[in-house]
Amino acid sequence: MKQLAIIGPTASGKSDLAIKIAQKIDAYILSIDSLSIYKKIDIVSAKPSKEELASVKHFGIDEIYPDEHFSVEIFIELYKKVVDSCKKNSKNLVIVGGTSFYLKSLMQGLSTLPKIDEEVKSRVALQIKELEKCYEMLTAKDQKYMQKIDKNDSYRIEKAMLIYKASGLTPSEWFEQNPPLPIIEKMPIYNIAVERSVLRERISNRTNKMLEMGLIDEVCYLEKKYSRLPNAMGSIGIVEVLNYLDAKVSKEEMIELISTHTAQLAKRQQTFNKNQFDGIISAPLEELEEIILSQ
Protein backbone atom coordinates (compact mmCIF):
# COMPACT_ATOMS: atom_id res chain seq x y z
CA MET A 1 0.00 0.00 0.00
CA LYS A 2 1.32 3.42 -1.03
CA GLN A 3 0.47 6.44 1.10
CA LEU A 4 1.20 10.14 0.84
CA ALA A 5 0.08 13.38 2.48
CA ILE A 6 -1.00 16.70 0.96
CA ILE A 7 -0.95 19.66 3.34
CA GLY A 8 -1.17 23.41 3.04
CA PRO A 9 -3.02 26.42 4.44
CA THR A 10 -6.78 26.67 4.42
CA ALA A 11 -8.32 27.58 1.03
CA SER A 12 -5.18 26.54 -0.88
CA GLY A 13 -6.92 23.84 -2.97
CA LYS A 14 -5.88 20.72 -1.04
CA SER A 15 -9.18 18.83 -1.33
CA ASP A 16 -9.48 19.21 -5.11
CA LEU A 17 -5.88 18.10 -5.62
CA ALA A 18 -6.32 15.11 -3.27
CA ILE A 19 -9.36 13.90 -5.23
CA LYS A 20 -7.48 14.18 -8.55
CA ILE A 21 -4.51 12.24 -7.16
CA ALA A 22 -6.68 9.62 -5.45
CA GLN A 23 -8.56 8.93 -8.68
CA LYS A 24 -5.31 8.47 -10.59
CA ILE A 25 -3.56 6.20 -8.07
CA ASP A 26 -6.67 4.26 -6.95
CA ALA A 27 -6.66 5.56 -3.40
CA TYR A 28 -8.96 6.31 -0.49
CA ILE A 29 -8.77 9.74 1.17
CA LEU A 30 -8.31 10.39 4.89
CA SER A 31 -9.18 13.96 5.87
CA ILE A 32 -7.18 15.64 8.62
CA ASP A 33 -9.42 18.63 9.19
CA SER A 34 -10.50 19.50 12.73
CA LEU A 35 -13.98 20.64 11.63
CA SER A 36 -14.83 18.27 8.78
CA ILE A 37 -14.73 15.41 11.30
CA TYR A 38 -18.09 16.67 12.60
CA LYS A 39 -21.48 15.86 11.15
CA LYS A 40 -23.75 18.86 10.50
CA ILE A 41 -20.82 21.32 10.32
CA ASP A 42 -20.79 21.46 6.54
CA ILE A 43 -20.55 25.03 5.28
CA VAL A 44 -18.25 26.34 8.04
CA SER A 45 -15.80 23.48 7.46
CA ALA A 46 -15.87 23.90 3.65
CA LYS A 47 -16.30 20.14 3.21
CA PRO A 48 -16.06 18.66 -0.27
CA SER A 49 -19.45 18.50 -2.02
CA LYS A 50 -21.59 15.35 -1.94
CA GLU A 51 -20.54 14.69 -5.53
CA GLU A 52 -16.86 14.97 -4.62
CA LEU A 53 -17.30 12.75 -1.58
CA ALA A 54 -19.01 10.18 -3.79
CA SER A 55 -16.25 10.24 -6.41
CA VAL A 56 -13.63 8.89 -3.97
CA LYS A 57 -14.21 7.10 -0.68
CA HIS A 58 -13.43 9.52 2.17
CA PHE A 59 -12.67 8.89 5.82
CA GLY A 60 -12.36 11.47 8.60
CA ILE A 61 -15.42 13.38 7.39
CA ASP A 62 -18.78 13.20 9.21
CA GLU A 63 -17.40 10.77 11.78
CA ILE A 64 -18.89 12.26 14.98
CA TYR A 65 -21.44 14.85 16.16
CA PRO A 66 -20.36 18.33 17.35
CA ASP A 67 -21.04 17.54 21.01
CA GLU A 68 -18.88 14.38 20.95
CA HIS A 69 -15.26 14.34 22.09
CA PHE A 70 -12.44 13.99 19.57
CA SER A 71 -8.72 13.64 20.26
CA VAL A 72 -5.41 12.64 18.71
CA GLU A 73 -5.81 9.17 20.24
CA ILE A 74 -9.18 8.74 18.50
CA PHE A 75 -7.70 10.01 15.23
CA ILE A 76 -4.85 7.47 15.36
CA GLU A 77 -7.36 4.65 15.89
CA LEU A 78 -9.31 5.97 12.89
CA TYR A 79 -6.10 5.99 10.82
CA LYS A 80 -5.39 2.36 11.73
CA LYS A 81 -8.92 1.35 10.63
CA VAL A 82 -8.48 3.23 7.34
CA VAL A 83 -5.17 1.45 6.68
CA ASP A 84 -6.86 -1.91 7.32
CA SER A 85 -9.61 -0.97 4.86
CA CYS A 86 -7.04 0.09 2.24
CA LYS A 87 -5.14 -3.18 2.58
CA LYS A 88 -8.33 -5.25 2.48
CA ASN A 89 -9.48 -3.53 -0.73
CA SER A 90 -6.04 -3.10 -2.37
CA LYS A 91 -6.20 0.68 -2.24
CA ASN A 92 -3.58 3.36 -1.73
CA LEU A 93 -4.10 6.23 0.72
CA VAL A 94 -4.00 10.02 0.36
CA ILE A 95 -4.00 11.96 3.64
CA VAL A 96 -5.11 15.56 3.20
CA GLY A 97 -6.09 18.53 5.32
CA GLY A 98 -5.13 21.64 7.20
CA THR A 99 -4.80 20.21 10.70
CA SER A 100 -1.22 19.03 10.22
CA PHE A 101 -0.92 18.37 13.96
CA TYR A 102 -2.77 15.09 13.31
CA LEU A 103 -0.24 14.17 10.63
CA LYS A 104 2.60 15.06 13.00
CA SER A 105 1.07 12.75 15.60
CA LEU A 106 1.23 9.86 13.11
CA MET A 107 4.89 10.57 12.40
CA GLN A 108 5.80 10.93 16.08
CA GLY A 109 3.36 8.43 17.55
CA LEU A 110 1.81 8.40 21.01
CA SER A 111 2.96 6.83 24.23
CA THR A 112 1.15 3.66 25.24
CA LEU A 113 -1.09 3.88 28.30
CA PRO A 114 -0.88 1.56 31.31
CA LYS A 115 -3.26 -1.39 31.52
CA ILE A 116 -6.39 -0.05 33.18
CA ASP A 117 -8.70 -2.63 34.74
CA GLU A 118 -12.40 -2.21 35.50
CA GLU A 119 -11.79 -1.59 39.20
CA VAL A 120 -9.54 1.40 38.46
CA LYS A 121 -12.02 2.74 35.89
CA SER A 122 -14.88 2.52 38.42
CA ARG A 123 -12.84 4.15 41.18
CA VAL A 124 -11.73 7.03 38.94
CA ALA A 125 -15.26 7.48 37.59
CA LEU A 126 -16.42 8.15 41.16
CA GLN A 127 -13.50 10.41 42.03
CA ILE A 128 -13.81 12.48 38.87
CA LYS A 129 -17.24 13.69 40.01
CA GLU A 130 -15.24 15.99 42.29
CA LEU A 131 -13.31 17.42 39.35
CA GLU A 132 -11.71 20.33 41.18
CA LYS A 133 -10.42 18.05 43.95
CA CYS A 134 -8.86 15.68 41.36
CA TYR A 135 -7.28 18.60 39.52
CA GLU A 136 -5.74 20.00 42.70
CA MET A 137 -4.38 16.58 43.74
CA LEU A 138 -2.80 15.94 40.34
CA THR A 139 -1.36 19.46 40.19
CA ALA A 140 0.27 18.99 43.58
CA LYS A 141 1.93 15.79 42.36
CA ASP A 142 2.71 16.78 38.75
CA GLN A 143 2.56 20.52 38.19
CA LYS A 144 4.55 20.36 34.94
CA TYR A 145 1.99 18.08 33.26
CA MET A 146 -1.14 19.64 34.75
CA GLN A 147 -0.26 23.23 33.85
CA LYS A 148 -1.12 22.32 30.24
CA ILE A 149 -4.61 21.16 31.25
CA ASP A 150 -7.55 23.45 31.98
CA LYS A 151 -9.16 22.90 35.37
CA ASN A 152 -12.52 22.23 33.64
CA ASP A 153 -11.15 19.75 31.07
CA SER A 154 -12.81 16.64 32.53
CA TYR A 155 -11.61 14.35 29.71
CA ARG A 156 -7.89 15.07 30.17
CA ILE A 157 -8.11 15.21 33.97
CA GLU A 158 -9.79 11.79 33.98
CA LYS A 159 -7.09 10.44 31.65
CA ALA A 160 -4.37 11.75 33.99
CA MET A 161 -6.16 10.16 36.96
CA LEU A 162 -6.38 6.81 35.15
CA ILE A 163 -2.64 6.87 34.37
CA TYR A 164 -1.78 7.73 37.97
CA LYS A 165 -4.10 5.19 39.59
CA ALA A 166 -3.26 2.36 37.16
CA SER A 167 0.53 2.80 37.14
CA GLY A 168 1.35 4.48 40.45
CA LEU A 169 3.34 7.03 38.41
CA THR A 170 2.53 10.64 37.67
CA PRO A 171 1.70 11.30 34.00
CA SER A 172 5.11 12.96 33.49
CA GLU A 173 6.89 9.94 34.97
CA TRP A 174 4.81 7.52 32.89
CA PHE A 175 5.41 9.29 29.58
CA GLU A 176 9.13 9.67 30.34
CA GLN A 177 9.39 5.91 30.87
CA ASN A 178 7.13 5.13 27.88
CA PRO A 179 8.22 7.39 25.01
CA PRO A 180 6.08 7.48 21.85
CA LEU A 181 6.68 5.16 18.89
CA PRO A 182 5.98 6.39 15.32
CA ILE A 183 2.83 5.07 13.66
CA ILE A 184 4.25 5.88 10.20
CA GLU A 185 7.99 5.47 9.73
CA LYS A 186 8.27 7.41 6.48
CA MET A 187 5.87 8.96 4.00
CA PRO A 188 6.18 11.63 1.29
CA ILE A 189 4.57 14.91 2.36
CA TYR A 190 3.61 17.50 -0.26
CA ASN A 191 2.90 21.09 0.74
CA ILE A 192 0.98 23.60 -1.36
CA ALA A 193 3.04 26.79 -1.55
CA VAL A 194 0.88 29.86 -2.14
CA GLU A 195 1.53 33.61 -2.06
CA ARG A 196 -0.12 35.39 0.86
CA SER A 197 -1.94 37.90 -1.38
CA VAL A 198 -3.37 35.09 -3.53
CA LEU A 199 -4.41 33.15 -0.44
CA ARG A 200 -6.09 36.20 1.11
CA GLU A 201 -8.16 36.66 -2.05
CA ARG A 202 -9.15 32.98 -2.07
CA ILE A 203 -10.14 33.18 1.59
CA SER A 204 -12.26 36.27 0.92
CA ASN A 205 -14.00 34.57 -2.01
CA ARG A 206 -14.62 31.44 0.04
CA THR A 207 -16.07 33.44 2.92
CA ASN A 208 -18.56 35.13 0.58
CA LYS A 209 -19.45 31.77 -0.97
CA MET A 210 -20.11 30.34 2.51
CA LEU A 211 -22.53 33.22 3.17
CA GLU A 212 -24.36 32.49 -0.09
CA MET A 213 -24.60 28.79 0.80
CA GLY A 214 -26.35 29.56 4.10
CA LEU A 215 -23.61 29.99 6.71
CA ILE A 216 -25.79 31.99 9.12
CA ASP A 217 -28.62 29.45 8.97
CA GLU A 218 -26.17 26.61 9.63
CA VAL A 219 -24.75 28.32 12.71
CA CYS A 220 -28.28 29.05 13.99
CA TYR A 221 -29.12 25.36 13.62
CA LEU A 222 -25.91 24.27 15.36
CA GLU A 223 -26.51 26.64 18.30
CA LYS A 224 -30.10 25.48 18.71
CA LYS A 225 -29.17 21.79 18.45
CA TYR A 226 -25.91 21.70 20.44
CA SER A 227 -25.74 25.02 22.39
CA ARG A 228 -22.52 27.06 22.45
CA LEU A 229 -20.69 24.74 24.84
CA PRO A 230 -18.98 22.15 22.55
CA ASN A 231 -15.39 22.95 21.52
CA ALA A 232 -16.44 22.92 17.86
CA MET A 233 -18.67 25.94 18.51
CA GLY A 234 -15.57 28.02 19.21
CA SER A 235 -14.30 27.63 15.65
CA ILE A 236 -13.59 30.37 13.13
CA GLY A 237 -16.74 31.08 11.16
CA ILE A 238 -19.01 30.06 14.02
CA VAL A 239 -17.81 32.55 16.66
CA GLU A 240 -18.08 35.51 14.28
CA VAL A 241 -21.62 34.56 13.21
CA LEU A 242 -22.66 34.16 16.85
CA ASN A 243 -21.31 37.65 17.57
CA TYR A 244 -23.34 38.95 14.63
CA LEU A 245 -26.46 37.21 15.95
CA ASP A 246 -25.78 38.81 19.35
CA ALA A 247 -25.66 42.21 17.58
CA LYS A 248 -22.04 42.72 18.65
CA VAL A 249 -20.88 43.28 15.06
CA SER A 250 -22.52 44.23 11.77
CA LYS A 251 -22.84 41.77 8.90
CA GLU A 252 -20.02 43.51 7.04
CA GLU A 253 -17.79 43.35 10.12
CA MET A 254 -18.67 39.66 10.57
CA ILE A 255 -17.58 38.88 7.01
CA GLU A 256 -14.33 40.84 7.42
CA LEU A 257 -13.57 39.15 10.76
CA ILE A 258 -14.10 35.66 9.31
CA SER A 259 -11.69 36.48 6.46
CA THR A 260 -9.12 38.05 8.81
CA HIS A 261 -9.20 35.24 11.35
CA THR A 262 -9.03 32.62 8.58
CA ALA A 263 -5.99 34.38 7.07
CA GLN A 264 -4.33 34.38 10.51
CA LEU A 265 -5.03 30.66 10.80
CA ALA A 266 -3.53 30.09 7.34
CA LYS A 267 -0.36 31.90 8.41
CA ARG A 268 -0.08 29.68 11.52
CA GLN A 269 -0.61 26.59 9.36
CA GLN A 270 2.15 27.65 6.96
CA THR A 271 4.57 28.23 9.84
CA PHE A 272 3.73 24.86 11.42
CA ASN A 273 4.11 22.98 8.14
CA LYS A 274 7.45 24.65 7.43
CA ASN A 275 8.93 23.86 10.86
CA GLN A 276 7.48 20.48 11.81
CA PHE A 277 8.24 18.14 8.90
CA ASP A 278 11.56 16.98 7.45
CA GLY A 279 12.01 16.44 3.72
CA ILE A 280 8.73 18.11 2.83
CA ILE A 281 8.19 18.84 -0.89
CA SER A 282 6.69 22.32 -1.48
CA ALA A 283 5.44 23.64 -4.80
CA PRO A 284 2.60 25.77 -6.21
CA LEU A 285 -0.76 24.01 -6.62
CA GLU A 286 -0.54 23.94 -10.43
CA GLU A 287 2.79 22.05 -10.27
CA LEU A 288 2.14 19.61 -7.43
CA GLU A 289 -0.06 17.13 -9.30
CA GLU A 290 2.69 16.38 -11.83
CA ILE A 291 5.34 16.23 -9.07
CA ILE A 292 3.29 13.76 -7.00
CA LEU A 293 2.47 11.50 -9.92
CA SER A 294 6.10 11.41 -11.06
CA GLN A 295 7.40 10.12 -7.70
Could you write a compact summary of the structure shown?
The chain is α/β, with parallel strands linked by helices and 295 residues long. 56% of the residues lie in helices and 8% in strands.
Describe this structure in words.
This protein is 56% helix and 8% strand. The model has no long low-confidence stretch (mean pLDDT 95). The protein folds into two domains: 3-109 and 183-294, Rossmann fold (3-Layer(aba) Sandwich), CATH 3.40.50.300; 118-177, Histone, subunit A (Orthogonal Bundle), CATH 1.10.20. With 295 residues, it is α/β, with parallel strands linked by helices. α6 packs across α8. The protein has helices at 14-25, 50-55, 72-88, 100-108, 118-127, 131-141, 143-146, 154-167, 171-177, 196-213, 215-226, 238-245, 251-276, 285-294; strands spanning 3-7, 27-31, 58-59, 92-97, 189-192, 281-283. The protein starts with a strand and ends with a helix. It has 14 helices and six strands. It has a six-stranded parallel sheet, with helices on both faces.
Summary keywords:
8% strand, 2 domains, Rossmann fold, 295 residues, six-stranded parallel sheet, Histone, subunit A, alpha/beta, globular, 56% helix
C-alpha end-to-end distance: 15 Å
- In terms of quaternary structure, what is this? single chain
Mean pLDDT: 95
Number of helices: 14
> Which regions contain 5 or more consecutive residues with pLDDT less than 50?
none
What would you call the shape? globular
Question: What's the CATH first level of the largest domain?
Answer: Alpha Beta
Radius of gyration from CA coordinates: 21 Å
The string of secondary-structure elements, in order, is: EHEHEHEHHHHHHEHHHHEH
Q: How many extended strands?
A: 6
Helix content: 55-70%
Widest sheet, order of strands: 3-2-4-1-5-6
CATH fold descriptor of the largest domain: Rossmann fold
Classification by helices and strands? alpha/beta
Beta-strand content bin: 5-15%
Number of domains: 2
In the CATH hierarchy, the architecture of the largest domain is 3-Layer(aba) Sandwich
